[in-house]
Design a protein that fits this description.
Layout (H helix, E strand, L loop, with lengths): L6 E14 L5 E3 L3 E3 L2 E17 L2 E18 L4 H7 L3 E2 L5 E2 L9 E9 L4 E12 L16 E7 L2 E3 L2 E3 L1 E5 L17 H10 L7
Antiparallel strand pairs: 1-2, 1-3, 1-8, 4-5, 5-10, 6-7, 8-9, 9-10, 9-13, 11-12
Length: 203
Amino acid sequence: MATEKVKFGLSNIYFAERTGTDEGEVTYKAPVKCPGAVNASISRNTDQNIFYADNKAYFVSNTKSSVEIELEVADIAKELLTTFLGYIKSLNGSLLETNAAVTPSFAVLFQIETDNKARKICYYNCTAAESDEEYGTKEDTIDPTTSTLKVTCTGETVGDYSVFREIAYSGDKNYDTFFNTVKVPTSEQAQELSMDNPDKAVI
């Protein structure tokens, strides 16, 4: 079986607003595309605890608390600013940046390419903040200015796990429809994936 050796290419960034039902079930609205994907940087907040005995590391445990995602895009669409970043639309149609302390949680989805099978990825239960902006005068050549979103993913509680993301590989049953809806895995699915198919676990 051929495996992926290198990853390249980023496209198809989507945001899906996180909602819920009266029964407490987590749901997500239909994903909204964020055009102009440029770059995505992923870092994980992990605490490592080491217990020493017999003059060596006797037991090591790792606890992952959240995932930090830095998304660079060509520009941030109006719909995304008002839905996820606390902007409000004035009566004359312009946008007003506010000090809204609480903004909706969401899932962020995107696609990457490899030398074998492309992947579609969904990070659950995220919040976002804009980074600093910088503008420059136009010179002989056009050097576009991009926008960056700082996204924090805290994941969904599924059974005994905190599920941060799901990865669909080209050929998986849900690959073609991955960007249509966001579905939170059930406890049964998480257990099945982690035990029977660890290379594609959602954790």
